[in-house]
Amino acid sequence: MLTSHGARLELLLLKKRLSVKLLLPDDVIELILERLPVMSLLRFKSVSKKWKSTVEDRRFQERQLLCRKQSRGPDFLFMSLQIVYNMWFRSLCWSICHGSCDSLVCLYDTRVGVVVANPATRWYQTFPLARIQHYMSRHGVSVSPSPKLGFGKDKLNGTYKPVFLYNSFGFGLDNVTTCEVFDVSTNAWRYVHPASLYRINAYNNPKIYLSFDLHNQTFQVICKAPIAHVCDPSSVSMCILDNSLFVSENNWSTLEIWSLDCSRGNTKTWKKMCSVGLIKRVSFFRECALLPIAILDKTKLLLEGHECTHQLVMHVLHTINDEILYRSKKPIDSFCYIQSLFSALSN
Length: 347
What we know:
This protein is an alpha+beta fold and 347 residues long. It contains six helices and 22 strands. The protein has helices spanning 4-23, 26-34, 38-44, 49-55, 58-71, 131-139; strands at 75-80, 83-84, 87-88, 95-96, 105-109, 113-118, 123-127, 148-154, 159-167, 177-183, 188-191, 208-213, 218-224, 236-241, 244-250, 254-264, 267-277, 289-296, 300-306, 311-316, 322-327, 333-337.
């Protein structure tokens, strides 16, 4: 039981808290909340209905993500088979879409399913099997290269869309390039008609790079590829760095990286970003398709020894300086990641 003095002190503190609350307008409170870590924001949803509504508001989530980018920069997400930090999925997904979209990551397996997850909030959603996944699971078909999944955002209506692209010849279907897009409104996959006019073939020369408009759902040839002829398709990688498209080629002695310059409107050109000599590098570089995953401070390039060394390497641009940041005994995927509150259901 509180004493008279204790009761007066508690009342005084309560009045003080209320007075502070009255002195802070809602917009000021939002500015403060935008600068807090994701886990703190999730806990603060229980403070009041107003705070819960604020944290779940799409515009607030966008401002929080922007603030996080400007104040802290990226974190690095390491993923191994079923586990993302301490998140376990019922389905075993062996593949991952490289990179993240609004900090959402997409995992998949050709015979199991598609999972979109936010590691910061531990939220995830499992999508129904695509038609090609149904076919491969039912018939036990396995082909190489396997169907590839992309994951992106329709910026006009704000919806997230997984996209499967594959050559149906290997599945006993029509010998054409086939595209499937997941429609959130119907919770089902559907074919895109017409699909790309170019067949999916890793050994095509010269190389053709296509873009897919998630809103209009149409394909377009970007421009002439910077790599004319490729002997080993596994030596070429595509990635998104600083919101730009990059292509890299690892020819054992040199890693060459190009960026797509879109500053001239409809006229797009490839610009060589850098050339990294590999002969004098340590042995973990050799015979591996290195995948660039981040540019830091405009002077450092983060490389992953994808499907080979399971290492994360920091390279200082225009020098011969390298540093191993992380080494794993198990196969891993890693990429840049900004903590956010987004989910695929955000609107």
